[in-house]
Amino acid sequence: MRKSLTQFLVEQQRLENAMPAQLRLLIEVVARACKVIGHTINKGAITGLLGSMNRENIQGEVQKQLDVISNDILLEANEWGGHLAALASEEMEAIHPIPYRLPKGEYLLVYDPIDGSSNIDVNGVVGTIFSVLKAPENASGRDVTEADFLQPGSRQVAAGYAIYGPQTLLVLSVGTGVYAFSLDREMGSWVQTAERMTIPPSTREFAISMANQRFWNPGVASYIGDLVAGKDGPRGADFNMRWMGSMVGDVHRVLTRGGVFLYPSDSRANMRSGKLRLMYEANPIAFLVEQAGGLATDGGARRIMDIVPDGLHQRVGMVLGSADEVSKVIEYQKPAQALAAP
Ligand code: AHG
Ligand code: MN
Ligand code: MN
Fold this sequence. Notes:
single chain, alpha+beta, D-Maltodextrin-Binding Protein, domain 2, 2 domains, five-stranded mixed beta sheet, 23% strand, binds 2,5-anhydro-1,6-di-O-phosphono-D-glucitol
């Protein structure tokens, strides 16, 4: 019999001592909420929940009905368990402290309820991304504030995503490697189907939105130019390209067979600091990528997980995936003189 998520978590707790009971509960609750979100997405138009809310979130993006519903599913599932001090999400402007009437725990949960939500209505791949931090020690006797969340990604104690595609999967790390669990719909349970996922260091596949080419900085432009030049260019090899419009989808491919994914900052006024959100997109994905042996940087040499956030909804440029290619991107970003220096 395959291992269930519960069995995996109990083993982690026993073998690696990586998981206090509260964290185990937290992950089980998030995983259960993802089942509900996956089920709702899977029903599609039958529920009448496709399409937009006709209102914008804090990011200035039009919310889909499923963005809002999935946000509430995660909120309601996690509020009562006693494992959290507060939550924060892409779809909520401010943090959500656990109400006084409910028991409070020691963890902070940050999430993107639906990543790639423009894919919902076209039956494309979407996901849920989550990151778990510990509330600062001194937060126990007082109200949790946004400042308590502003910890670098290196302090994450767990991170993961659910991906709602042809299969529904949960990909998870508690700091002891990356594991994947498939949703067995008939049984209603998550069963482990991959362990110690690793990203091969070299790759011939890249992911970037070519629509933004004219806004790229010279380093990104010449790196991609050299990939596209293929066998006849300086890299002497053909590269394939994929872009799913959902970071979870692209990252899952990278975790499965390698690749490099780029959403760099660019010259557009609203993209100078990148598009992806540091706390609930970049950090959890960086945690998984590094746990799988890959690299995740801001497009230059700065490690994503070293950045100290200055706001909940801060954005960041991102380059991640196979170590050799991420290192190459960093080299291309160095000024010409630096490259020429002995
Ligand atoms: P979200 O749906 O949570 O707003 O995130 C979408 C993100 C990311 O998942 C994806 O890689 C990227 O936006 C796609 O951006 P473009 O529409 O610019 O291609
Ligand atoms: Mn997203
Ligand atoms: Mn989203």
